[in-house]
Amino acid sequence: xxxxxxxxxxxxxxHAQKPIRIxxxxxxxxxxxxxxxxxxxxxxxxxxxxLADRVHVAGVGCMGLCGRGPMVEIEPEGTTxxxxxxxxxxxxxxxxxxxxxxxxxxxxxxPFFTRQVKVVREFGGKIDPEKIDDYILxxxxxxxxxxxxxxxxAEVIDMLVQSGLRGRGGAGYPTGLKWATVAKAxxxxxxxxxxxDEGDPGAFMDRSVLESDPHRVLEGMAIAAYAVGADQxxxxxxxxxPLAIRRLQLAIQRARKLDLxxxxxxxxxxxxxVDIRIGAGAFVCGEETALLASIExxxxxxxxxxxxxxxxxxxxxxxxxxxxxxFASVMPIIRNGPAWFANIGTATSKGTxxxxxxxxVHNTGLIEVxxxxxxxxxxxxxxxGTPDGxxxxxxxxxxxxxxxxxxxxxxxPVDYESLAQIGSIMGSGGMVVMDAHTSMVDVAxxxxxxxxxxxxxxxxxxxxxxxxxxxxxxKISAGDATQADLDWLEQLCAMVKAxxxxxxxxxxxxxxxxxxxxxxxxxxxxxRKT
Length: 530
Known about the structure:
The chain is α/β, with parallel strands linked by helices. The chain is about 45% helix and about 15% strand.
């Protein structure tokens, strides 16, 4: 494969295009709402009407407004329909010839769409994730070619450093610095690992990227492998994501067939193989050392750090670990330059972030926004507030590791430092909205029960501490607790946070601590008065 052959594939795909393209979302959310039947009826109607030479129906990835699927978009006119049923499919085809469609049109002028800045999700809902030609036509794998033929390893890393990209898995560690550390580390072999073990309740950002644009992640991993000197990659994906796994497998097969993965990529000496490892649903395997143990075939439990995986990871070799969204950001940075990416976002938090907006909010789904956007814009404007018009009480960011932010602090910009200052974290991108009817004590209890169930049990503070915290929260919710119990709850939170081995236990008290801080009156109201 050379650049000419890559362009030839793009040209063939371009010439095969038809005047009208109907994009039908076939992501997990829309499939659960019967989108595959919608797609089938659209195709049947096109054949029945003799329009097969003019109209093509493409199964595409997530369009974002997941709560209103199945979604269907007509190109090039841009009309989008929501809640489409198979029975409405013929009327959509009739609309192509000036007829009236019975399907409900989506308001694309709504802030949910207009306030988004798409970097990671730029191809989401636009390309068929099962067709590599669609990705190549959109410019895919050209960044990898550029890197292999025009840039040294150090130049690639420097570009990532200049971009200001930080890890999108939660901690926000500078990506370029991590790559540089692995590149300098000594070892007979190096590995690149993509952490797709997305386990936060209400979060589905990584799943959507893997389902909608798998080649973007593979290209990002290949660029990273070249930069750090690795020849083997692993994508660790939750077993609960069968569609993402299937599309990743297909993408790897087709990339190998075109020599975009494997040996002598783009006629160079660079070799890179990618394999998938399927997780069994253990939340703790999102922690990098537990994930590595699982890939090696051992029980997924964390180990003390240092040494960090960058120095001693898989089988004791230097290993680069980034999450799905981080790798998906690499290709556009190479294509557009580091200054382009660095000009998006804030001084310390560059670029965009994908969030799964869920809970008591009118517009649920995936959004990608510039770093630094205020919470009020995301929840009230893009999300549209609560479905019944009741006041928004709080939003929970960062999953079980994050905190609950009250509506009084919704002017806070969404970036790493600002969220940390008010007792929460960015996390992988879950954002759960709570209305005035939500009990914050019950919210804290829910997340603690989750952490208690998901604790690997290796260290006593997490194994026993989360159980005791859950029992105290349950006692408070039942109205059986006293002030002494509440005092003990706060002390125990501090102990678990300070002494647990890994991030699961260290962050498990965060939802409790944030609700104690901002909603202390709800705890007091449930205490026994005697």
